[in-house]
Specification:
The chain is an alpha/beta fold and 352 residues long. It contains 13 helices and 10 strands. It has a single domain, classed as Rossmann fold (3-Layer(aba) Sandwich), CATH 3.40.50.970. The strands form 3 sheets. A 6-stranded parallel beta sheet has the order 4-3-5-6-10-9, sandwiched between helices. The protein starts with 5 loop residues before the first strand and ends with a helix. Bound molecules: thiamine diphosphate and magnesium ion.
Length: 352
Amino acid sequence: MDKFEKYFGLVDSDFDSPILVDNHDFEIQFKHLETMILIRFTENLLAEKRKIGKIGGPIHLAAGQEAIAVGISSVLTKKDYVFSAHRSHAHLLALDPNPYGLFAEVLGRSTGLSKGFGGSMHLWNGKSGFSGSVPIVSGTIPLAVGTGLASKLRGSESIGVAYFGDGAMEEGVVHESLNLASKLEIPILFVCENNLFSSHLHINERQPSNFNARFAIAHQIESRVVDGNNVKSVANNAQELVSQIRNTRRPAFLEAFTYRLYGHVDWREDIDVGVGRSSEDLNKWKSRDPIKRLKKALDGNAEFVEKLAQIEQDIKIRIVQDWEKAESDPFPSDSELISNVLFSDVRDQNVI
Ligand SMILES: Cc1ncc(C[n+]2csc(CCOP(=O)(O)OP(=O)(O)O)c2C)c(N)n1
Ligand SMILES: [Mg+2]
């Protein structure tokens, strides 16, 4: 069992509590549900394809954590600069729910989001605001701070957004980033997705406290701690923090507690059972699945069941079509190998 009961202001049983949705809220929450389902089905398909060897490189799945990406993205604009790390599919798809470019990328095709050179852990989708993911844990956090600073210097409304895990919090550069953002008053939202694990190691084995927003408090940054499996709570808190960031041009920090349903990497859910997480905990968190919880909340609405069945079917069909299309795309040509790695067309034309 998790060895602690308190998640700074939240208690363990809060994660089992119902999500309250009334009729005027129904459309918004249904939209959230739709995006979460698209992300879940996309990742389930990736898991299956990785298992049978169709995908060559490792994939880090965020199933179980979708409510955070969907809640946060619902309050961002395409002009914001969003960065992530190794577990970034949900962040990418919540901004642009279109898996084709991701599929082409993990298949190494030239039509992929990074032209087939990056795979699952090097994604970019500039038109949606997704400004990059890299697998160096915490590596993109200072970049997000930089985009926030640049926005402020340009007098633009845009903000930086950095998604990172509880493990990333243990890298020195995160603390330097928090300090700089606070001292220079940089418009950035730090989003700590606390799924309690860094690879196979539980946070209790690594930290004196399971609560990471304490570091924001130390840097005098406004912070919130939320139930990351409740999309409505994530979206409402993100809305308040993001408006505050846009108005004051100061940073904010949101810590969302959650749990991943797959193992650290690839498709096996039990890869870390027996190392750090017990099947008992896994089952407990499965019952707190953010999709299940939101379905339950929406179930009272008269149109819900029919609407849901239709949407789930449409998404399934679309995803399979996107995968097949990506699979039939070409690999990069030899000339692309040179132009994208050894020098950049853009750099040669415009910058240097
Ligand atoms: C600088 C660096 N150190 C170590 C690793 C190996 N590594 C990959 S993922 C990971 C765990 C990260 O945990 P967390 O930030 O909580 O993200 P989660 O996997 O839980 O989403 C580690 C240690 C790495 N990729 N980069
Ligand atoms: Mg983690």
